[in-house]
């Protein structure tokens, strides 16, 4: 291990220096101590959650084009040695890359949106999304590096999302990250569940807390006891809430260029939420799992009963009566979809308080967390139960390279990364992607109440981190 450039004394010294200056909240004295373990294995990494250092400042709303996002930067102390990490994100429908320093300065952030594809196909088509990522990934990454006024030789590491997400899309980002890391002898960090990172502007937010991920591909309820120790209370057993929003928006003929969820939320404000009687999913199951497939079927049948081909007749050309019908369906869907979310969260709060009575916060993230109606209803639930709701800014609820890069910095400073991959990697090399990531142990009461869950597994590539996680999980 001593022969590897990753573990040279100068590198370890630099990590120690940065660890002490940038991450005082971490309990370990220094990350270098981990490398002295007799096993010789890299220590396990935690997929959730990461505490964002207060020096990491905010960025403005993400651009829908490949233009560089306007950022609010915060420079560290002069003379402080910093890590510089490239973050690559391709988990779903946006291609993003960012360069971030360990002092919190965002050097660049580039986002390429697939909004036109979303509108054309009425949602995310995995194969089309993969092809779109492949077409622009080189340009997006190169722009991020150039806008930072750096070259690849100036980077300290490369971070990339390996899950959750669409496996076809994840593969594009991982391939690009491994190529750069191999060519320039850089360590690589597999970023997992980076959407659940905490944007810590509130000083009183401490472990333990309850966390909710609500996105297009995943719903998760997690009890976070401390770094690396968490209990899964509930998860999606079929479709996630974001996917249900997108599909309903498509069936209603809405403009999807800015996303199905925002379009449906806007239309729902015009409708009567009690006009269409949809049944709330899974009320007979006393657990914290989520299911939206049945609600989607109810919505489709309600649309068919209007005898109008709404999907192929855009709402922009609809009559006032037709628009009202669509608005009523949208409002009724949203009420029941969020009611299901409320019920699961309320039960999760009950369970979590049994395990950790000191819980004071529900932390929410994911694309659906930007929905104002969702936030207002969740705020009602936590207030009723004596908790507080913590949400990231709306522009940080969706995919972005900045959070991936920052996750990479946190992992790297704790010694949780993979060594540089081979420069010439075989084309048939298989990658360790986690489209659905199992977070920690599952609450026993939840197991007894829940339906059986299907899991997706792909062959390993970022093996040292993943295997180390299994061996060293506390």
UniProtKB/TrEMBL annotation:
Residues 461-474 have a biased composition (Polar residues). It is found in: Mitochondrion. It catalyses: L-threonylcarbamoyladenylate + adenosine(37) in tRNA = N(6)-L-threonylcarbamoyladenosine(37) in tRNA + AMP + H(+). Keywords: Acyltransferase, Metal-binding, Mitochondrion, Transferase, tRNA processing. GO terms for cellular component: mitochondrion. The keyword Plastid does not apply. GO terms for molecular function: metal ion binding; tRNA N(6)-L-threonylcarbamoyladenine synthase activity. Coiled coil: none annotated. It holds the Pfam family TsaD. Residues 450-474 are annotated as: Disordered. One of its GO terms (biological process) is tRNA threonylcarbamoyladenosine modification. Binds 1 divalent metal cation per subunit. Its main location: mitochondrion. Its cofactor is a divalent metal cation. Belongs to the KAE1 / TsaD family. HAMAP family: TsaD. This is Glycoprotease 1. It comes from Spirodela intermedia. The gene is GCP1.
């Amino acid at each position: 291990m001593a022969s590897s450039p990753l573990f040279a004394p100068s590198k370890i010294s630099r990590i120690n220096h940065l660890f002490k200056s940038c991450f005082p909240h971490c309990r370990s004295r220094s990350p270098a101590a981990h490398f002295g373990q007799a096993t010789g294995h890299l220590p396990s990494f935690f997929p959730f959650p990461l505490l964002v250092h207060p020096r990491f400042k905010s960025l403005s709303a993400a651009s829908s084009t490949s233009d560089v996002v306007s950022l609010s930067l915060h420079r560290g102390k002069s003379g402080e040695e910093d890590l510089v990490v490239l973050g690559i994100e391709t988990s779903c429908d946006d291609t993003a890359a960012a360069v971030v320093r360990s002092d919190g300065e965002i050097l660049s952030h580039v986002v390429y949106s697939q909004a036109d594809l979303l509108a054309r196909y009425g949602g995310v088509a995995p194969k089309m999304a993969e092809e779109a990522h492949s077409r622009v990934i080189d340009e997006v990454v190169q722009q991020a590096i150039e806008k930072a006024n750096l070259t690849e030789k100036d980077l300290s590491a490369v971070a990339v999302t390996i899950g959750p997400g669409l496996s076809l899309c994840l593969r594009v980002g991982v391939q690009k990250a491994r190529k750069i890391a191999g060519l320039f002898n850089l360590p690589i960090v597999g970023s997992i569940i980076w959407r659940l990172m905490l944007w810590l502007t509130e000083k009183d937010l401490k472990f333990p807390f309850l966390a909710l991920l609500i996105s297009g591909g995943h719903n998760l309820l997690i009890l976070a006891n401390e770094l690396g120790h968490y209990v899964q209370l509930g998860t999606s057993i079929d479709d996630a809430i974001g996917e249900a929003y997108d599909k309903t928006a498509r069936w209603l003929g809405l403009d999807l260029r800015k996303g199905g969820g925002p379009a449906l939320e806007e239309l729902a404000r015009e409708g009567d939420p009690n006009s269409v009687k949809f049944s709330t999913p899974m009320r007979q199951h006393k657990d914290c799992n989520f299911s939206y497939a049945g609600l989607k079927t109810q919505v489709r049948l309600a649309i068919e009963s209007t005898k109008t081909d709404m999907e192929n007749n855009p709402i922009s050309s609809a009559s006032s009566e037709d628009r009202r019908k669509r608005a009523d369906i949208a409002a009724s869907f949203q009420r029941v979809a969020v009611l299901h979310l409320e019920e699961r969260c309320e039960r999760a709060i009950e369970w979590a308080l049994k395990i950790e009575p000191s819980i004071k916060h529900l932390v929410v993230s994911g694309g659906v967390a930007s929905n104002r109606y969702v936030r207002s209803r969740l705020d009602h639930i936590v207030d009723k139960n004596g908790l507080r709701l913590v949400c990231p800014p709306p522009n940080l609820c969706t995919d972005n390279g900045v959070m991936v890069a920052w996750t990479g910095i946190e992992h790297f400073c704790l010694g949780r990364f993979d060594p540089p991959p081979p420069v010439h990697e075989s084309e048939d090399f298989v990658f360790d992607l986690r489209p659905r990531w199992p977070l920690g142990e599952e609450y026993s009461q939840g197991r007894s109440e829940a339906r059986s869950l299907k899991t997706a597994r792909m062959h390993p590539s970022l093996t040292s981190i993943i295997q180390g996680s299994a061996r060293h999980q506390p």
